[in-house]
Structures are given as structure tokens and as C-alpha cells.
Amino acid sequence: MKTVLLCLVLSFSTLVLVSESATTRLTYSRWINLLRYAHSSLQRDPTAVEDRQYNRTDHVQLIADSILKHFFNDIFTPSFTEDGELVHNYDRVPVDFLIMLDSSASIGSENFLKALQVLSTWIDILDEEDFSSDQLRVSMVSFSEPDQVIHEFAFSPALNKSSVISYINSTEYHAGSSTSTAQALWLADTIFSKHARPDAAKVMLMATDGWSHDVLELPFGVLWPAVRLRKLHGVQVFTLGIGDKINHNELEAICSKPTANHLFEVDDYDMMLEVLEKVKENQIFPF
Fold first, then answer.
1. Interhelix angle 22-42/2-16, nearest 10 degrees
2. Which residues sit opposite 153 in a β-bridge?
3. Reduced to 3 states, what is the DSSP secondary structure of residue 80?
4. I want to staple 184 with a disulfide (CB 3.0 to 4.6 A). Which of 15, 31, 143, 258 is the partner?
């Protein structure tokens, strides 16, 4: 079936080349994007979970080290007195952090609860004082079908750490039959452009277990909104792929570069909880 799709795309793209109109060139670009997706779907992903050859414990530690360094340490940097005493530097740039959570049917209700636990644990690692001082604001979007791309709660100085965790844990599982990743990214674009603080560092984490289904419905699929987030709004984008059905190429296209610092892949939600426990164990200071 994938081979047939690739042949059809090639045939259509060849026909489109005949015309030189502006509209046709836009159509051609859109179909080139589809061609890339069709081609990538034919390739066996060497990083797929079933192909990995590693020790689970070692992999948990590897991912934990990467998240600790590139998310927690690099974004939430503490400061010290001359005597080496830890202090909080509230003169540093504030942070607006947006969480994007896949709530499609493929996850299942049990794993969705684990996903909420993962996000709650992620937030719990952060310092309460960053919330109370308005150094950190958090917002969240859940996404599945096109009419179930939902802005769960907005950036607000009134939300402390416990209230953010409470909002996360009360997120409803929508169990949509599709995954509108591109539409979710466009909502993130709106949130950062209209609701983030102009002087804040902008950070986003997208967690998903599968492939987007709206790549053909929206021009350029996930690529264009992802580029806008990173280049136009200056968002540092992290992607978290969970399970054996993730689209590595798509997650790589969405995240910031270098990919190794911004894309994390784990076998399941239990493994991700293990990763965050390692992050907490390896902290040398509270954030």
C-alpha cells in the first residue's frame, strides 16, 4: 500500500511540474512534503524500539542524564554565592513552559493516567519558588481529533506548582480516533504569540506515542508550524516519543537542534517514570 502511495505521489508531482502558475508551485511544494513523508514511511527506522540493542537500565540513565542536562540544568540555572552557597537568581530570564500531550485512543486510559503522572513528576522536579516568584509559568494543551485539540490551562502568575500539578492530573482523556499533531502545533503558535511574556524564554515539551494524522489536511503538515515555533517565536522545542509506534522522523522535524539534546525516546510510560526518578536522584541541587 505504501509503495502504491509513493508511486501516486511521484506521478502527481511530475504532472504538476508542467504548470508554472504560482498556485501550482504551492501545490507542488505541498506534494513534495507528502513525498518526503511517504518515502520516510517506507524506511525502517533504525532507532525503533524493536531494533534497539541496549540494556534498559543503561538507557534509562542515558535519557535521564540528557534531560537533566539539556532541560533542567540548561534552562533553570541556579546561582551561587562566593562561598558556594546556592541562591536563586531571579534576575535571570523568566520561562514560559508549554506542555503538549497526546490524548488519542492509541494511548489507552491506563497509559494516559501514567502520562499524567509523568508530566506531574516532571513539574514536581522544578522549584516551588520559581512558580511563586513568577519566574516560571506553565500552560498545557491536549490533542487528539481535530475538535479535541484543547488548551487545558493558560499561562498565569496565579498558578503555583501544586495548582499546575492539580490541573495536569485532572486532564480529561479524550480518546480521539486520530492525532492532530499539526493542528496542536498551530495552537501552540497562537499561545506563544499571544499569551507568552515578551521577555520570557519559551520552552515546549510535546509527548506522543504515535504518528500525526493531519499531515495531508494542513499545508506542510507539522513542518511549517514547527519551524515557526522555533524560528519566529524562539521556542526551544523538546519532543518525547513513548512506545514502539512513534514516528522518529516526525519528532525530529518538530524538535529543536541538535536533535540529540531535544528528542527523547523511551519504550513505555513506566520507563519514562524510571527516567524521571533517576533525574531526581541525580540532582545535585533543588531547582
1. 160
2. 140
3. strand
4. 143
Cell (9 digits) for 232? 519566529
Under 8 Å between Cβ of 101 and 143: yes
Q: Which residues contact 25 (CB under 8 A, 6 or more apart)?
A: none
Residue 127's Cβ-count burial label (10 Å; 0-12, 13-18, 19+) is middle
Angle at 224 between CA 222 and CA 226, to 5 degrees: 65
> 37 with 59: CB under 8 angstroms?
no
- Segment 144-159 mean pLDDT: 94
Q: Which three cell numbers stand for residue 242?
A: 513513548
Pick from 118, 280, 97: nearest CA to 200:
97
255: left (phi over 0), alpha (psi -120 to 50) or beta: beta
The pTM of the full predicted model, rounded to 2 decimals, is: 0.78
Residue 26 CA, chain-centre distance (Å), reads 28
Confidence bin at 101 (pLDDT 50/70/90): very high
Kindly indicate the confidence band of residue 70, based on its pLDDT and cuts at 50, 70 and 90: very high
CA 186 to chain CA centroid, Å, is 13
Assess contact for 53 and 98: CB atoms under 8 A: no
H runs (alpha helix) in 17-148: 22-42, 56-67, 74-75, 109-125, 128-132
Query: Residue 105: which of 1, 208, 244, 233 has the closest Cα?
Result: 208
Phi, psi of 154 (to 5 degrees): -100, 165
d(CA 86, CA 2): 56
Would you say 178 and 139 are in contact if contact means Cβ atoms under 8 Å apart?
no
Rounded CA-CA distance 220/47 in Å is 24
Q: For residue range 203-228, list pLDDT tens digits in order.
A: 999 999 877 766 555 546 888 999 99
Name the strand (E) or helix (H) holding 238: strand 235-242
